[in-house]
Automatic annotation (TrEMBL):
Protein known as: Iron-sulfur cluster assembly accessory protein
Domain of life: Bacteria
InterPro entries cross-referenced by the UniProt entry: ATAP (IPR016092), ATAP_core_dom (IPR000361), Fe-S_cluster_asmbl/transfer (IPR050322), FeS_cluster_insertion_CS (IPR017870), HesB-like_dom_sf (IPR035903)
GO CC annotations on file: cytoplasm
Annotated coiled-coil segments of the chain: none
One of the GO biological process terms: iron-sulfur cluster assembly
Amino acid sequence: MIKVSDTASKKIVDMMKDDGFDATKDYVRVGVKSGGCSGLSYELKFDREIGEDDKIFEDNNVKIAVEKKSFLYLAGTILEFSGGLNGKGFIFNNPNANRTCGCGESFSL
């Protein structure tokens, strides 16, 4: 499962609305791809459709779609949002990551 913090949930719902998506029907697609300074990087985008190989979760009023192969890397992750002085953006607190880069956008196992 993937969890969503209160702060991230509010930000996602607002961003979805701004981009013409409906948080009650549409999904946040979370994934992993090769790349980044640590080997793997996170993907986050909005989607209206789900695929055959997607795992679907709902937490804190956010519907999440994750492809099965990405889920292996993301199980137990908490999606958070930081608006602090050190930068603004989404943070993936991933218990599976052995190492993360300084920007927090990539990781390795």
